[in-house]
């Protein structure tokens, strides 16, 4: 397929609003809620032609299939277009004309999304087949739920480390020894992210 034909999906705000409304109804037990009436959780979006990642070059079908087989970035040395090397892209702005276009895109890895993206949830004791980790109530990441437990704990520690660093900006002084839990957490996350590149 052509690179411009790769399908991108973003979270549907209408879905999020309805989901919150249904959660309220369920908690109040005022009426029975049919989840089949929910709108689709995602909306299709396209890369804006002015974006650096927009390309009209063809992408080898086998290269595109790598995205579903690899849980991280594909080798940098590969001649595959950047947009195909990473399973997710982040965007800063969107624009609607005849289509929903995304601008200011940054490709990212699955682990980066899990560590820095929206809220994550998982169902360890579920009786039905679990989708794995669900990011932001709509994006399933297929993995074992035990990975979700570990990632959520690392994310909690990372959030706490960032909070501590922002509350005490004197951390940049070289005279301080970097032995705090926050420093250790940040170094671990830095190594993990660097290993994905």
Describe this entry's structure for a reader:
It is a single chain. This protein has about 200 residues and is of the alpha+beta class. The chain folds into two domains: about 1-110, no CATH class; about 110-195, no CATH class. The chain contains six helices and seven strands, in the order βαβααββαβββαα. Strands 1-2-4-3 form a four-stranded mixed beta sheet. Strands 5-6-7 form a three-stranded antiparallel beta sheet. A hairpin with a 3-residue loop joins strand 6 (about 135) and strand 7 (about 140). The longest helix is centred in the C-terminal third of the chain and has 23 residues, at about 145-165. The radius of gyration is 20 Å and the shape is globular. It holds the Pfam family RNA_hel_CTD. Keywords: ATP-binding, Helicase, Hydrolase, Nucleotide-binding. This is YLR419Wp-like protein.
